[in-house]
UniProtKB/TrEMBL annotation:
YrdC-like domain boundaries: 13-199
Binding residues annotated for ATP, in chain numbering: R58, N62, T117, S143, S151, R195, Y234
Location(s), subcellular: Cytoplasm
Name the record gives this protein: Threonylcarbamoyl-AMP synthase
The species this protein was found in: Pectinatus cerevisiiphilus
Biological-process GO terms, alphabetical: regulation of translational fidelity; tRNA processing
Length: 345
């Protein structure tokens, strides 16, 4: 199959209509959102959603998130929005947040992996919203990467993974936040964060008295409630070692580790902040931005993880961030990318 890439703006009705036509006829199309690029198909069509799993090589027990463009479309997804979800909807939607709610019986089991709940999100990206609107159905869309690989934040990264697997990629430029949506379980007595994202715990605590984090995000032996969180994910080709600790200690720790691995004859790549890279004076580096700007680091993160894939490197050392705010999402992705190979400093 030929994979076409069309550059689009939100006003570009012709291209978005073409994509919507493909969705309506049961095909899979990649499109930009304000988190990462999504791989979309009709969320009410079993066959169409099966194509998403095939294109990604995604395990069938890992459910998909349904994307809606309006409150009216919620009725196609769930019969009853828990009050907690209504509160999140009015505070943060459209935006980078997914609510887990009871599913309507008409939602195929292929979407939910057989669960009685479903993830629903209202993206803010105007291209995504128009695509959903013109398709007339909730669009099931995971990130547009091969399972286990870093999520794509540009059309070029989508193409690298999806070439020959899907008919169309809408290229709307770089995705905004660069990390996937915050997933919040709205079926318990208090909101539980199953996956951290750009809607942060601190932001949720402004509207809820109590917010929990799925224990599996911080403890090794717990089983995560979001099935997708149990898989190795975001992994670059070379093994990655993550450094966790205060930012003042990063330069010393990375310089020491660089020396050690080089001493063992290994070719080292380093992903770090502008501050550390400037002081390190080393060549094989990816600068993920200033350690004073976590949002910039989030938006560069997956490009950083992809950067060394075509370089001659044996091992990647990565500087960790704080776990405050969107830092929790950054560290969650880096920990997964490292396969829990973490050095605490
Ligand atoms: P992706 O869209 O590829 O970024 O992944 C979607 C994430 O949402 C995966 O980790 C899924 O396991 C999770 N997810 C989707 N639906 C549910 C659900 N009903 N309950 C818990 N987690 C879910
Ligand atoms: Mg994904």
């Amino acid at each position: 199959m030929e994979t076409e890439i069309i550059k689009v703006t939100p006003e570009d009705n012709e291209a978005i209509e073409k994509a919507a036509g493909l969705i309506k006829s049961g095909e899979v199309v990649a499109f930009p959102t304000e988190t990462v690029y999504g791989l979309g198909a009709n969320g009410l069509d079993t066959q169409a959603s099966a194509k998403i799993y095939r294109a990604k090589g995604r395990p069938s027990d890992n459910p998909l998130i349904l994307h809606i463009d309006s409150v009216e479309m919620l009725s196609m997804v769930t019969k009853k929005m828990p009050p907690m979800a209504v509160k999140i909807l009015s505070a943060f939607c459209p935006g980078p947040v997914t609510m887990i709610v009871p599913k309507k019986e008409t939602i195929p089991d292929t979407i939910t992996g057989g669960l009685s709940t479903v993830g629903v999100r209202m993206p803010a990206n105007p291209i995504a919203r128009k695509l959903i609107n013109l398709s007339g159905v909730p669009i099931a869309a995971p990130s547009a990467n091969i399972s286990g690989r870093p999520s794509p934040t540009t059309a070029a990264s989508v193409y690298r993974d999806m070439k020959g697997r899907i008919p169309l990629i809408l290229d709307g430029g770089a995705a905004g936040f660069g990390v996937e949506s915050t997933i919040i379980d709205c079926t318990e007595e208090v909101p539980v964060i199953l996956r951290p994202g750009a809607v942060t715990k601190e932001m949720l605590e402004e509207i809820f008295a109590e917010v929990r984090i799925d224990p599996a995000l911080t403890k090794k032996d717990e089983i995560p409630k979001a099935p997708g969180m149990k898989y190795r994910h975001y992994a670059p080709k070379a093994p990655l070692v993550l450094f966790e600790g205060k930012k003042e200690a990063m330069l010393g720790a990375l310089a020491k580790a660089l020396k050690k691995y080089q001493g063992e004859g290994q070719k080292v790549g380093i992903i770090a902040s502008s501050e550390v890279i400037k002081a390190l004076a080393y060549d094989a580096v990816y600068d993920y931005g200033s350690n004073k700007n976590l949002y910039a680091i989030a938006s560069n993160l997956y490009n950083a993880l992809l950067y060394f894939d075509d370089k001659d490197i044996d091992i990647i050392l990565a500087e960790g961030t704080t776990q405050k705010g969107i830092g929790l999402a950054i560290m969650n992705r880096l920990k997964k990318a490292s396969g829990q190979n973490i050095i605490k400093i």
